[in-house]
């Protein structure tokens, strides 16, 4: 385990040497102290302290064995399949690779130098951030599970939304080369944390509408071993549309006419294709991802049977 | 030790029980509506009207001539004309296809056409849908629209201030520019409150007919994509068509750099003297 400190904003400080970018890129988690500040609560606590002129230190304890044990637990958990968390992280690693302008629909080396001239209508997000590398995706998962570990340590067996964990983790792991460097200088005056805040808000806004479909598909794959990414949408009233995961059985039920020989009007929709065009987030991987869950579930069942 | 996976609380989807209860309720409501209508004596008239409206028109003539179809009676820009539709799609970006078309027209070869022309062509085919060759053409177009965008020669210029511009046959001698406030929310065509948008884009503001044509062509209703708010700088988008299981997208927010396919069309040779 190692850590490095880097003062990027005051680049003219002497006595420090630059860190090689490749080395820097191997540090999976970034803590930005730009906005670290004393809160009123901190000040109250300091004022209430005995003013001896010297800090009052807590007794020194060696908890390294506990830290290492926790780390092992988190590492072991990260090596196992976590269908929902893995899917959200895959949005960060593959979904954000999408470029509407590129002929292969991938962000390549030139990103983001040509984004200003890009005419893709929904480029607000894809021009701001690019995908995390495989290495970073690994760190994302460990960090998310680490946050969950700390929450459980402090509050007991509470359930935290894996999407919130993924988003929080993304915020700490996606700085080096992932944010639009041109925009960070021109629009954010070098304050990449502000840019990250906008990225997180945009990501949340854009992913939230597709989440129900992702969650529903994954749930069906995990619980019933069925891979399906289509949905049935119908008008429950003039102002309300409802959706349910597609199944042939349900479709047949809906095809049955009522006493007046009329049928419910419904549509079979593929929400993921439209999502890609309207958000600039690639979701072509999702169908195979759900297939993968079903296959591994069936392999597990076969093993158990043996 | 096996890690317990992190599960979200799934929101926003119905259960099967809810769907079936909704179905029974909606069908009951439909039945009540029917009864009410019959009591008012509207039922019979409406049925007759529906039958009348669904009667396919048969004026459209289609011939297969080698590697293209000849479609007669296309009403485009107020003139009835005959057109040839190639059995090969053209491939490229809009700019490349327009450049190709400028040459092609001189050699009476196939080129790209505006989205308004597409609407005229599809409506003509729809009116002649009893012709067996029409189904062949319908399938040909539908099969291409599902995997990829069908590019047209129309561009929408979204201006930061003032009216936007619908430009048919962009950069071509017969270019047509229509100033209009085009920015707005994406919408199902049938539910639109601004039919004038479709007049500028498709040459018709008959929303019911537009929707019927796509319901026939791709078996799904039509939906419009466009810029939802005024851009900071001028944005030019290519108008294209795309079909999926949910709807046909009249896409007016696509980037001009994207390569895809387009229908290859030319005026039928006999008509060249009339242009």
Structure description:
The complex is a heterodimer of chains A (306) and B (275). Chain A has 306 residues and is mainly alpha-helical. In chain A, 50% of the residues lie in helices and 5% in strands. Chain A is built from twelve helices and three strands. A three-stranded antiparallel sheet of chain A has the order 2-1-3. In chain A, helix 6 packs across helix 7. The longest helix of chain A has 33 residues, at 192-224. Chain A is globular, with a radius of gyration of 24 Å. Chain B is globular, with a radius of gyration of 22 Å. Chain B has helices spanning 16-40, 43-54, 94-106, 115-127, 132-145, 195-202, 207-217; strands spanning 61-65, 68-76, 79-86, 90-92, 150-158, 164-168, 176-180, 187-188, 222-225, 235-243, 248-254, 260-262, 265-267. In chain B, helix 4 crosses helix 7 (207-217). With 275 residues, chain B is α+β, with helices and mostly antiparallel strands. A seven-stranded mixed sheet of chain B has the order 7-6-5-10-11-9-8, sandwiched between helices. The N and C termini of chain B lie far apart (79 Å). Chain B has two domains: 18-26 and 149-260, no CATH class; 62-147 and 263-274, no CATH class.
């Amino acid at each position: 385990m190692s850590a490095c400190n880097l003062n990027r904003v005051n680049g003219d400080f002497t006595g420090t040497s630059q860190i090689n970018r490749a080395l820097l890129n191997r540090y999976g988690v970034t803590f930005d102290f730009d906005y670290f500040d004393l809160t009123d609560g901190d000040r109250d606590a300091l004022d209430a302290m005995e003013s001896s002129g010297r800090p009052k230190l807590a007794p020194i304890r060696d908890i390294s064995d506990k830290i290492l044990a926790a780390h092992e637990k988190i590492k072991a958990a990260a090596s196992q399949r976590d269908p929902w968390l893995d899917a959200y992280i895959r949005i960060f690693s593959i979904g954000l690779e999408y470029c509407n302008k590129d002929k292969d629909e991938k962000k390549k080396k030139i990103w983001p130098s040509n984004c200003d001239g890009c005419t893709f209508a929904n480029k607000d997000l894809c021009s701001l951030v690019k995908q995390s590398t495989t290495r970073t995706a690994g760190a994302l998962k460990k960090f998310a599970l680490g946050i969950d570990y700390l929450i459980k340590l402090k509050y007991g067996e509470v359930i935290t939304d894996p999407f919130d964990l993924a988003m929080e983790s993304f915020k700490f792991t996606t700085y080096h080369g992932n944010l639009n460097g041109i925009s960070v200088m021109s629009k954010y005056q070098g304050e990449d944390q502000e840019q990250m805040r906008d990225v997180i808000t945009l990501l949340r806004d854009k992913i939230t509408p597709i989440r129900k479909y992702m969650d529903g598909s994954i749930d069906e794959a995990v619980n019933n071993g069925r891979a399906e990414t289509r949905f049935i949408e119908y008008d429950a009233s003039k102002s309300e549309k409802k959706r349910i995961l597609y199944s042939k059985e349900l479709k047949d039920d809906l095809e049955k006419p009522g006493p007046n020989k009329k049928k419910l009007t419904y549509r079979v929709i593929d929400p993921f294709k439209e999502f890609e065009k309207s958000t600039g987030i690639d979701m072509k991987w999702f169908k195979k991802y759900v297939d993968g869950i079903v296959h591994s579930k069936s392999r597990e069942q076969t093993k158990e049977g043996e | 030790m096996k890690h317990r996976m992190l599960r979200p609380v799934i929101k926003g989807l119905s259960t099967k029980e809810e769907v079936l209860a909704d179905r029974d309720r909606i069908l009951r409501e439909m039945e009540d509506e029917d009864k009410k209508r019959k009591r008012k004596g509207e039922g019979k008239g409406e049925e007759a009207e529906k039958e009348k409206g669904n009667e396919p028109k048969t004026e459209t003539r289609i011939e297969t001539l080698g590697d293209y179809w000849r479609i007669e009676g296309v009403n485009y820009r107020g003139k009835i004309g005959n057109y040839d539709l190639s059995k090969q799609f053209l491939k490229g970006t809009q700019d490349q296809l327009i450049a190709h078309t400028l040459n092609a027209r001189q050699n009476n070869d196939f080129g790209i056409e505006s989205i308004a022309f597409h609407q005229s062509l599809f409506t003509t085919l729809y009116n002649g849908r009893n012709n067996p060759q029409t189904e062949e053409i319908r399938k040909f177009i539908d099969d291409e629209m599902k995997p990829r965008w069908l590019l047209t020669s129309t561009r929408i210029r979204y201006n930061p201030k003032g009216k936007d511009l619908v430009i048919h046959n962009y950069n071509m001698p017969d270019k047509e520019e229509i100033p209009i406030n085009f920015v707005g929310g994406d919408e199902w065509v049938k539910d639109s409150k601004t039919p004038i948008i479709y007049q500028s884009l498709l040459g018709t503001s008959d929303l019911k007919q537009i929707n019927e044509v796509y319901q026939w062509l791709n078996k799904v209703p039509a939906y419009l994509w466009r810029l939802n708010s005024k851009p900071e700088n001028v944005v030019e988008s290519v108008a294209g068509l795309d079909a999926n299981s949910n709807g046909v997208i009249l896409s007016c927010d696509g980037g001009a750099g994207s390569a895809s396919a387009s229908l290859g069309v030319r005026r039928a040779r006999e008509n060249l003297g009339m242009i």
